[in-house]
Amino acid sequence: MRSTSTQLDLFAHVAAAYADAPASTLDNATLYGIIAERAGLEPDELETRIPIGKAGALHNAAKRRIRWYQQTLKQLGVIERVDGERGIWKLTENAGQDLQKAAAGVKLVAFSTELGIAVWSRCESVFGCLNEPIALCVTSPPYPLRQARAYGNPDEARYVDFICEALEPVVRNLIAGGSVVLNISNDIFEAKSPARSLYVERLILALHDRLGLWLMDRMPWVNFSKPPGPTWWACVNRVQLTTAYEPVFWFTNDPARVRSDNRRVLEAHSDRHLRLMQAGGAQRSAIYGDGAYRIRPDSYGRLTEGKIPRNVIQRGHACNDTLAYRQHAAAIGVPTHGAMQPTSIPDFFIRFLTEPGDLVVDTFGGTIRTGLAAERLGRRWLVTEWILQYLRGAAELFRDFPGFGMHPALATVGKKAC
Ligand SMILES: C[S@@+](CC[C@H](N)C(=O)[O-])C[C@H]1O[C@@H](n2cnc3c(N)ncnc32)[C@H](O)[C@@H]1O
Question: Is 366's C-beta closer than 6 angstroms to any atom of ligand 1?
Fold first, then answer.
């Protein structure tokens, strides 16, 4: 049995052979010869036939392996058969250009670390057959936009079913008190109307009624660096205000056992509050709100570790990981993602809702920020994303983590693929 790394090298040789061939086209006999040379196979390795399978039919093991890699490249949309020819394949025109979406049933570990894996797949193909306790799902699904993103969007009419179907297997595996955090859009409008869609309300009710999730909080992610919109209803017809937030919904399957702990997300006290605590607290008595709030001479006098965060997340788009992702994507020649979150958003929820070692997942991975935050925080992670190019760019953000490995098929992705 060959070592895994040799098998992976062989895969890369097969991919590279097509990329280097005249007109990117190769017949199988030539392919076998090129691979033998590139991989340094012994001359008899391509000739010796051994009994394989139950029937014991004689086959050459190396050629079979090469043909198997050929099939994987076909599944990846990298190569295709030349019409009407037997055993002749060529690079597809789209290889490295159009977004390559995983077909139903395709599951390929795009890259992995000691703590987690990013799988090129539709989420349903992976989570549908998962049997592993999940502590948290932090995800930002595609929004039901009228003008679809490059990666595709479900329409509003099917949206509730789409999200419930995607999350059902996650919720089935959620440990008691585990959480689901959903970042969606508030800015979906009724057709030809400045009125907002009620899809958000329908979705919350469906997640409760169909999946048994309880709403713990709806937190606005306030982002003043959002471009001004909705253009038609705020900038052209001046009937709406420009938007500056997206809602983030936090659900759990068991509020009585929810595993959140705000001590894991404490913020630094302001200088003013520190001074107040150090001075022994308020030096006065006051009553506000018809007696609901009282200040006594020792109020706020106890030294505490930090400030409990408010349930509003204020973050701009600026993020070093987004910057790094863009640079890597440009260098490799893959398109950048059109809807990246700053990593600090999943980072906050992972700290608040999980403990080291817990499994954190993201069904709609994009540039794998949930995975990245989980990796840095010592949580295990599993993320699916159906566009191969996004995974290629994201892989670069994980290179320095222990155990990093990338499937060689990913090296064939991009205009400047190696
Ligand atoms: C809003 S983006 C997520 C962005 C991500 N949070 C980030 O910061 O990069 C949604 C992602 O879901 C992916 N997607 C859509 N449908 C999918 C499916 N059925 N399975 C897996 N990924 C899917 C899209 O390709 C897109 O990258």
Answer: yes
